[in-house]
Design a protein that fits this description.
179 residues, alpha+beta, Jelly Rolls, six-stranded antiparallel β-sheet, 5 helices
Length: 179
């Protein structure tokens, strides 16, 4: 509702969820501790064992400007932790026109709601600034959440915050102009 070859990225705040991936799944060693630092910042109180397991699981993803990160109606393949870059999150109206809901800047998490709920994407994410991220495949990610219930609770908190923010944004879009 979100990647290129990771080097030193110093992207900044804003998080969001909701994404799927269509890229290569090769393992790339990202600067030691970088993945963990970003994840700990976005998901405080994550148990050490869960953090270590997620760090072992991640794969690098890269997207260029204009590239589709996930499509409305597509099933989620996993969660994406954005290191740098930005994506526009949009929906199609009844006439097929794109309505931008928001822009998500790294660091952020995309695809969490769809991965955990096993639902298709209700939005489209398009890369608007070269994207670098770590991909966490759905099945192993869910196994880690089952193994570490506290991690599941922490990610659930993020999902709740994201869904509340999305509901507020959609309600604002429905308000007539001038009210």
């Amino acid at each position: 509702m979100f990647v290129t070859h990771v080097t030193e990225s110093t992207s900044h705040p804003a998080y969001h969820f909701g994404m799927t991936l269509l890229r290569d799944t090769s393992r790339v060693d990202i600067e030691h501790g970088y993945f963990a630092d970003i994840l700990k910042n976005l998901v405080p109180y994550l148990p050490f064992g869960a953090l270590a397991a997620l760090e072992d699981l991640h794969r690098q993803r890269s997207y260029q400007c204009g590239e589709l990160v996930h499509q409305e109606g597509a099933a989620s393949q996993g969660v994406l932790l954005l290191y740098s870059g930005a994506v526009d999150i949009s929906i199609l109206d009844k006439r097929g026109r794109s309505i931008k809901l928001r822009q998500v800047l790294a660091p952020a998490i995309l695809g969490l709601n769809e991965t955990v709920s096993d639902h298709v994407f209700k939005t489209r994410a398009t890369c608007v600034k070269e994207l670098e991220a770590a991909f966490l495949p759905a099945a192993p990610f869910m196994n880690i959440l089952r193994q570490f219930p506290m991690a599941g609770l922490q990610f659930s908190r993020l999902m709740s915050e994201d869904l509340t923010a999305m509901y507020i944004r959609l309600a604002d879009l429905r308000r007539p102009i001038g009210r």
